[in-house]
Amino acid sequence: MAAFRTLDDADLAGKRVLVRVDLNVPMEDGRVTDDTRIQAILPTIRDITTRGGRAILLSHFGRPKGRDASQSLAPLVPAVAQRLGAKVGFVDDCIGASAEQAVAALGAGEVLVLENTRFHAGEEKNAPDFVAAMAKLGDLYVNDSFSTAHRSHASTEGLAHSLPSFAGRSMQSELDALTKALEAPERPVLAVVGGAKVSTKLELLGNLTAKVDILAIGGGMANTFLAAQGYAVGKSLCEHDLAPTALKVLESAKAAGCEIVLPVDVVVAKAFEAHAPHRVVGVDAVAEDEMILDAGPQTVRLIAGKLERVKTVVWNGPFGAFELPPFDAATVAVARAVADRAEAGLLLAVAGGGDTVAALNQAGVAERFSYVSTAGGAFLEWLEGKALPGVEALRR
Ligand SMILES: Nc1ncnc2c1ncn2[C@@H]1O[C@H](COP(=O)(O)OP(=O)(O)O)[C@@H](O)[C@H]1O
Ligand SMILES: O=C(OP(=O)(O)O)[C@H](O)COP(=O)(O)O
């Protein structure tokens, strides 16, 4: 028997199906800049609607503290409708009278998006009253969001205990593909971790050092390590409070025999904007009024050198502020080098994360990777061998 109930086990006709999806997609000026996560949920939505169910989509967007119009899911609704090729409704809350009325008015085969779950404090607290208020809106619960499975939130975990629950098609295929690709990875394994979510991803790097042979750290993540080692990082994105955690990661790596690769040179600018005047400097030469926005060419060469002796690459987090050219250079160069070797059959390359996938698409290499996951943090936690609350809650 499969570990999870899937849509194959569900009687969907006429049912109100609460579907946890991840509409936390990269956006710029109200426009979706990478639709991978939207494409990923279409099979599940279509499965529900063609079988006469009512698909009620739940998602967070960003990390708002309470209701915040700039983090609304409303601009995502036309993007979902366009890719689905069907009308999609929207209601400005995910609980309460307005949501209840909109769900009651939803016909069989129709689709509705509810407003950002994180507008309510109960979401991240997984508060029982908030879970109950959402559960009232559905007969069944489907989790199709592997990328939020590491969160023990009301819409990712709580609801699975309140309603008959099922894994969606994307959730199923992510778990299948990652298990196949990485259950017993060929060594040496190189993990590449960058990005901006330093506080939520730094701690897990300690455990990751026990699983991989080389850990290359870049992006905003690297700045915290550089600062912890005593380098001045100026105005860079950096969590100075987390210096002790960064030092612990370095100690764990030493104990595990995992080689750590940090930037040796960086690209710095005084403004966080595209084409800002910039210079390449050694990591010991960042001025007080500068910020690190990318890794430098020497660092790229260093990582390219490591690629020559590894058999598996796992990657989450861009190496720089890739949305702002030319600070995409290191990410693009490393992505191309990995893709070339994957395509030549010299290594297996798996990458994941909302922005990482966007960066690989921007570099035009996503198709040349062995597997690309929608998930970043969840992918790293899965790789560590951690039980993911959103996945565990779906087990039979
Ligand atoms: N040096 C840097 N300074 C500021 N932002 C950075 C830097 N390096 C990377 N980033 C940002 O990190 C973000 C992606 O991080 P993250 O959300 O952790 O990745 P993912 O979504 O792939 O899991 C991008 O928006 C990118 O601009
Ligand atoms: O974008 C996401 O994760 P990712 O940046 O690790 O790929 C998910 O939507 C989770 O978002 P969160 O890290 O705010 O919980």
Give a structural overview.
This protein has 396 residues and is an alpha/beta fold. The chain has two domains: 7-170, Phosphoglycerate kinase, N-terminal domain (Rossmann fold); 184-384, Rossmann fold (3-Layer(aba) Sandwich). It has 15 helices and 17 strands. The chain has helices spanning 36-50, 76-84, 96-104, 121-125, 128-135, 154-162, 169-182, 198-208, 219-228, 243-256, 297-307, 329-343, 354-362, 377-384, 389-392; strands at residues 16-20, 27-28, 31-32, 54-58, 88-91, 111-114, 140-143, 165-167, 189-193, 214-217, 259-261, 265-269, 278-282, 291-295, 312-316, 348-352, 371-373. The strands form four sheets. Strands 5-6-4-1-7-8 form a six-stranded parallel sheet, with helices on both faces. Strands 11-10-9-15-16-17 form a six-stranded parallel sheet, sandwiched between helices. Strands 13-12-14 form a three-stranded antiparallel sheet. Helix 12 links the parallel strand 15 and strand 16 (348-352). Adenosine-5'-diphosphate is lined by residues 194-197, 219-220, 237, 292-293, 316-318, 320-323, 353-356, 376. It is an enzyme of class 2 (transferase). One of its GO terms (biological process) is gluconeogenesis. (2R)-3-phosphoglycerate binds at residues 37, 118, 151. It is found in: Cytoplasm.
Briefly, what is this?
This protein has 396 residues and is an alpha/beta fold. Helices cover 38% and strands 17% of the residues.
Keywords:
396 residues, alpha/beta, Rossmann fold, 2 domains, 6-stranded parallel β-sheet, 15 helices, globular, binds adenosine-5'-diphosphate, binds 1,3-bisphosphoglyceric acid, phosphoglycerate kinase activity, Phosphoglycerate_kinase_sf, ATP-binding, glycolysis, Phosphoglycerate_kinase_CS
